[in-house]
């Protein structure tokens, strides 16, 4: 495989995820830099990082670690008495994140979880958790996002052995042509997997210019199920509400759900997104209208 093939970087990076998760799980010192139990925390990011922030916030609060809110960096309500702000960014150059951290510097302790150790954010935050082994060349982000979430989960005391095994198994499977070629996709989640659903929808939009949507699972029946139809997919991350699969299947749509760790199921979506992009003659390493980092002019 060479980098000249469409999606070559994305393919290499998505297949490396079980190993990068294992590495993140072992980073005890870095996990120790994250907010302590009881701290009131805001987690901020943009795009994919915002969705991973949503998942971390739900996991941390559910684990009894303290109130945790997630915001898009451009729309963050920071002056609410937070004890710390966690800024998640692959590049460390995203304009909205840099502006937010500069604005609160000296007032609220900041912790950056960053892929690029040479980025300007490293010197702005009070503590930098660096994940250079998970940084990427592809514009479409896969392993940095999931590795950061693996780090967060490990910091909350979760054992990632099962998730790593599930992801390894998923990556060894043959492709699913019916799933790859669907007309439309809706992704659903509950609790911490709502962030995964939003990220899955974004991933397919970025990589293959596909029609995708995402909702909390229980809210899907309050209108969005109207678009379910033959040739379309409703994909549930984690456990589905009782009766939902039958309701979706009654529309003729495919209800997609696996009894595996939801983060590994996101890897399965990454694989589907790559296969769909390549089948459509697209290169997810250089998707239309996108760059690796959003840097706004002054």
UniProtKB/TrEMBL annotation:
PROSITE patterns: SIS
Gene3D superfamilies: Glucose-6-phosphate isomerase like protein, domain 1
Source organism of this protein record: Microbacterium aurugineum
One Gene Ontology term of the molecular function aspect: isomerase activity
Name of the protein described by the UniProt record: Sugar isomerase
Top-level taxon in the UniProt lineage: Bacteria
Keyword Isomerase annotated: yes
Domain spans labelled SIS: 29-168
Transmembrane segment boundaries: none
Keywords: Isomerase, Repeat
């Amino acid at each position: 495989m060479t980098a000249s093939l469409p999606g070559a970087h994305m393919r290499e990076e998505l297949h490396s995820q079980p190993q990068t998760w294992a590495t993140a799980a072992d980073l005890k010192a870095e996990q120790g830099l994250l907010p302590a139990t009881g701290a009131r925390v805001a987690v901020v990011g943009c795009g994919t990082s915002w969705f991973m922030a949503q998942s971390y916030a739900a996991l941390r609060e559910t684990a009894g670690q303290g109130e945790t809110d997630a915001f898009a960096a451009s729309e963050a309500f920071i002056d609410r008495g937070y004890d710390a702000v966690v800024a998640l960014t692959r590049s460390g150059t995203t304009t909205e994140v840099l502006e937010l951290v500069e604005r609160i510097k000296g007032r609220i302790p900041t912790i950056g979880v960053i892929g690029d150790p040479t980025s300007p954010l490293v010197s702005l935050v009070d503590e930098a958790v660096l994940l250079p082994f998970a940084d990427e060349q592809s514009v479409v982000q896969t392993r940095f996002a999931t590795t950061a979430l693996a780090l967060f989960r490990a910091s909350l005391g979760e054992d990632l052995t099962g998730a790593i095994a599930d992801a390894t198994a998923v990556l060894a499977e043959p492709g699913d042509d019916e799933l790859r070629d669907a007309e439309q996709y809706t992704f659903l989640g509950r609790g911490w997997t709502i962030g995964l659903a939003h990220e899955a929808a974004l991933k397919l939009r970025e990589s293959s210019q596909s029609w995708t949507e995402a909702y909390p699972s229980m809210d899907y029946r309050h209108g969005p199920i109207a678009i379910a139809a033959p040739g379309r997919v409703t994909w549930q991350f984690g456990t589905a509400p009782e009766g939902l699969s039958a309701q979706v299947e009654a529309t003729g749509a495919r209800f997609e759900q696996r009894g595996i760790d939801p983060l590994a199921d996101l890897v399965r979506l990454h694989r589907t997104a790559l296969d769909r992009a390549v089948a459509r003659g697209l290169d997810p390493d250089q998707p239309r209208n996108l760059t690796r980092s959003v840097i706004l002019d002054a």
